[in-house]
Design goal:
By secondary structure, the chain is α+β, with helices and mostly antiparallel strands. Helix content is 14%, strand content 32%. A hairpin with a 2-residue loop joins strand 1 and strand 2. The two termini are 49 Å apart.
């Protein structure tokens, strides 16, 4: 199937059995030599009850994830979204689920990792661009900025996975050939009716030929050799495989560490360092800078250039004072080849 002409057709969760065809001698089935035994389920179906097999569940509303291709994940396990629907002009409701435990977005002192909210926002934008704004699956996406503010009162890990509804409004939409080329989307995440987070993001959608011209030789670069990780406990991690920073001799300065074998941060092959890796690096640098565990409350990031895999990236941190009691605001900047890559401001509290 050509991705250029791909259209999503969502099957209804509740199905209705087709009306029986009009009887005619030509269409009548040949009689069986022996009558097949009637099972209780078959008898129920004949009597108008729920039939056996897959149709037995047609009356239920079953939860499933959206197709992984819509959110640019190779692993089904990394898909956080479960459904979506249009609620108005450029307005949508997306549903999502956060597991109680995740292999990478691990809980922090009983709270869901706030960065799983950032990944949820990222996936929501991709989903709507593909399904509601006609962007083919082979297009590349670049996020330009992301801001999110969270309420820790509704981040607590409960006795079941967290079920979320996300109200999304799209704006500043530019179109080429009838499909979106760029858009901004604002989101309100709710859990059990309570506002858990508010977010704002923008992205562009680039056709393959244009993307290849933009990236040039960078599309075929070899990643740097893997560097030694910073001690996991200093960046809020327990495993060195999840550490994305390498120490340097300079104060409050780290080199970005990119392990392209990481099953979550590098879910599939890419020709640059993904934005979620940069956000994780900013979070880890904040924890290392402050010297104690942190729970992000707000995060504002601007991405200015691609982060290349074959050249060292360096992050620097500094704090802003004053801040509200119990809060810390940290600024993180990243440069590569003397060019800015991204800037993040994170406000945190101690969990």
């Amino acid at each position: 199937m050509s991705t250029h002409t791909f259209q999503a057709h969502r099957p209804a969760l509740t199905t209705t059995a087709p009306a029986p065809a009009a009887s005619s001698p030509a269409a009548a089935p040949a009689p069986l030599t022996a009558a097949a035994p009637r099972t209780p389920a078959a008898s129920a179906a004949a009597a108008g009850g729920v039939p056996a097999g897959r149709d037995a569940y047609a009356h239920l509303s079953l939860t499933r994830t959206v197709p992984k291709e819509f959110v640019h994940r190779a692993s089904v396990a990394e898909v956080l979204l479960t459904d979506w629907q249009r609620t108005g002009e450029d307005r949508f409701t997306v549903s999502a689920q956060w597991p109680r435990g995740h292999s990478f977005f691990t809980p922090i002192a009983g709270y869901h990792d706030p960065l799983i909210a950032a990944e949820t926002i990222r996936q929501s934008g991709l989903l709507l661009a593909h399904t509601e704004y006609g962007v083919p699956l082979d297009h590349s996406f670049v996020m330009h900025d992301l801001s999110i503010a969270l309420d820790p009162a509704h981040l607590r890990v409960g006795a079941a996975p967290a079920a979320l509804t996300i109200d999304v409004t799209c704006s500043d939409i530019t179109r080429r050939r009838g499909r979106a080329a760029s858009l901004r989307y604002t989101s309100t995440l709710r859990r059990d009716g309570h506002v858990l987070a508010r977010a704002d993001a923008s992205c562009t959608c680039t056709p393959p030929a244009v993307y290849q011209r933009l990236r040039g030789n960078h599309a075929h670069t070899t990643p740097l050799p893997l560097t030694a990780p910073t001690a996991p406990q200093t960046v809020g991690r327990t495993s060195p495989t999840d550490v994305v920073l390498t120490p340097t001799p300079h104060p409050h300065t780290w080199q970005l560490r990119t392990d392209t074998r990481h099953p979550v941060l590098f879910d599939h092959p890419v020709d640059h360092i993904p934005g979620m890796v940069l956000l994780e690096a900013a979070r880890q640098a904040t924890t290392a800078h402050l010297g104690h565990p942190t729970l992000p409350l707000t995060l504002t990031t601007t991405f200015t250039n691609y982060a290349e895999l074959d050249t060292p990236c360096h992050l620097q941190t500094h704090t802003t004072t004053p801040t509200p009691p119990g809060h810390h605001t940290t600024h993180i900047t990243c440069h590569q080849n003397n060019h800015p890559v991204f800037h993040t401001t994170i406000t945190t509290t101690t969990p």
